[in-house]
Amino acid sequence: MKESTHQSFRPLTWPLFFELIRLPAKLCSFLPYLFGILYAWWGFHQFNWVNSLVYFVGQMSIALFVTGFNNVQDYYKAKDEHYRQTQNIIGREHLAPHRILALMGLFLTIAVGAGLVLVWRTNLSLILIGGAAIFVAIFYTFGPVPLSRIPSGELLSGTVEGFGAVFIAVFVNIVPQPIMLTLTGSRFVLSGNVPLVLGLFFLALPIVILDGTIMFADNICDLKQDQRNQRFTLPYYLGKKRALAIYPWLPAAAYLAIVLAVGLRMLPVPVLLVVFMWPRVRRNIDAFLAVQDKAKTFNTAVANLLLTFGSETVLLLLCILIDLAVHRLF
Question: Which of 310, 305, 308 is nearest to 157 (CA)?
Answer without folding.
Answer: 305
